[in-house]
């Protein structure tokens, strides 16, 4: 039985950015997202960044699957490494299977 998601959604979500508690990097990240996505408020920056992360994961997977048919393992591994970030590690594995009947 499906639950009504709207009953689980809080009315507010807060992100601590207190520099004294070591969270200043969060504020800086939000400011960078505002600049990258050309938005004027923190909420829009966070929404754009999370949507982008979801789409970026799918696009990286699709690009590597395409390249796997066109380049060798060394090039594919190099591309995966270049697509990796601190927040999202990208790696490839190729499996070879030999079966007999």
From TrEMBL:
UniProt cross-references to InterPro entries, sorted A to Z: DUF7692
Organism lineage string: Archaea, Methanobacteriati, Methanobacteriota, Stenosarchaea group, Halobacteria
Lineage: superkingdom: Archaea
Pfam family, one: DUF7692
UniProt-recorded name of the protein: DUF7692 domain-containing protein
The organism of origin for this protein: Haloarcula pellucida
Residue span(s) of domain DUF7692: 13-65
